[in-house]
Amino acid sequence: MGQALVAIVMAAGKGTRMKSDRPKVLHELAGESLLGHVLHTLSGLPLTGTFVIVGHGADQVRAALPAGVQAVEQREQLGTGHAVDQVTPSLVGHDGDVLILSGDVPLLSAETLAAMHALHVREGAAVTMLSAELPDPTGYGRVLRDANGRVIGIVEQKDATPAQLAVREGNLGTYLAKWPLLREALANLTPNNAQGEYYLTDAIAHLAQAGHPVACHVTPDPLEGEGVNTRAQLARLQAAYQARTADRWMAAGVTFVSPATTIVGPRVQLGRDTVLEPGTILLGRTTVGERCVIGAHSQLRDVTCADEVEILCSYLTDASIGEGTHVGPYAHLRQGAALGRKVRLGNFVEVKKSTLGDGAKAAHLAYLGDATVGCDVNIGCGVITVNYDGTRKSRTIIEDRAFVGSNSNLIAPVTVGEEGYVAAGSTITMDVPAGALAVGRGRQVNKDGWVAKRRQAAPQA
């Protein structure tokens, strides 16, 4: 795609059949919005600009756009041709191509777009469109061809004759066009159709009738062009996406124990010989190294795992995990948690905005918030870093090879020095010097015979 190329993504529709207050393109598949999937596909192309046509829920859609993507509002939804024409003021001086596609086609691939472009260049086409032979083309515009197989137009279903409705080649709504020619065709559109709208397809028919070559890439995979109009369609495409993603990663050397129950988002990266157990969900910019095990029903979002990490039935977000570290079961890492190499984080341990050095251990039932934990530190059962006083957060520092006994509270800001010991059951409010033992608990008092005396004093029933 050497010539200047601009993408226009149609995302103005309400999606009435979704029965939702959320704009249709913001409904999620594999942890990414439908629009996010489309923009992710486009991110691999050499675009000089990307415009998203917004309308219904415009502010919500704008807020979801990544940097560098420009929103253009279609204040009245007057059809697809009208929508594309809203970008005209932003394309003054652009004499290259425009790629036009819908914001609700999550399975459309960069490979298919590249095939369209190759055909576009080879044919010297004014417009190249994407179509498929459909078992049931209901709801799709029909691609009309002459006796020689050349595209002469597209007719929407509501405007089609019975003979045209019998055509099984459906228009998938993705186009690559020479902008100067398309801009002229858009200017000549009229709403003379059953919908009373300005159809983009009429602009393509206009170009064909004016003698400009119109090419059509027929994809063997109709699902690539299928949009989402109902929640049932969303579920079907989710299942298809999962199957395709699993096949791709399994071919690269990753084991999916149960592909049908495993969700891996489009931005996730996986290393060889890693095993994903049933119910695993990997989302966002998650990266998992080689020879890892992500246990059943674990969920990771925006997490980086080095090699040979094991995570068992845990929830992690915005975290990093060092080589050979074991997490879970039932651990919770969030908001910048960072574990070093060969850390042991056990069941019901929560880590937030904290770092744990190499070899540190927190085997069970602990909360480490706003803490810096050194190497080879032992955190006992029930330990809490008390980081919030109701007004501000404060930090706890536990230096290398320190030992914090079970059921201890470390009241931040506080430091436990290198090789310092905290006795079990202590509440620590002052710094513990290196190599010292800190005991912060009330003195035990035993009262002999107390139970018998209490019984004697109790009233008779």
Q: What is this entry, summarized?
A:
By secondary structure, the protein is an alpha/beta fold. The protein has 9 helices and 37 strands.
The number of strands is 37
Q: If helices are DSSP runs of H or I spanning 4 or more residues, what is the number of helices? A: 9
Q: Please identify the structural class as seen in this structure.
A: alpha/beta
**Helical residue percent?**
10-25%
Strand content: 25-35%
Global shape: elongated
* Rounded average pLDDT: 95
**Rg, alpha carbons:** 31 Å
Cα-to-Cα separation, first versus last residue: 93 Å
Unreliable parts:
none
Structural description of this entry:
The protein has 461 residues and is α/β, with parallel strands linked by helices. 19% of the residues lie in helices and 31% in strands. The chain has nine helices and 37 strands. It has a 23-stranded parallel β-sheet that branches.
List keywords for this structure.
alpha/beta; 23-stranded parallel β-sheet; 7-stranded mixed β-sheet
Explain the layout of strands and helices.
Layout: E1 5-11, E2 28-29, E3 32-33, H1 34-42, E4 49-54, H2 58-64, E5 69-73, H3 80-85, E6 97-102, H4 110-123, E7 127-133, E8 142-145, E9 151-155, H5 162-165, E10 169-178, H6 179-187, H7 200-209, E11 214-218, H8 231-251, E12 255-256, E13 263-264, E14 269-270, E15 275-276, E16 281-283, E17 287-288, E18 293-294, E19 299-305, E20 310-311, E21 315-321, E22 326-327, E23 332-334, E24 337-339, E25 344-352, E26 355-356, E27 361-369, E28 371-373, E29 378-379, E30 384-386, E31 396-398, E32 403-404, E33 409-411, E34 414-416, E35 421-422, E36 427-428, E37 437-438, H9 450-457
Parallel strand pairs: 1-4, 1-6, 4-5, 7-11, 12-15, 13-16, 14-17, 15-18, 16-19, 17-19, 18-20, 19-21, 20-22, 21-23, 21-24, 22-25, 23-25, 24-26, 25-27, 26-28, 27-29, 28-31, 29-32, 30-33, 31-34, 32-35, 33-36, 35-37
Antiparallel strand pairs: 2-3, 6-10, 7-10, 8-9
Helix pairs in contact: 6-7
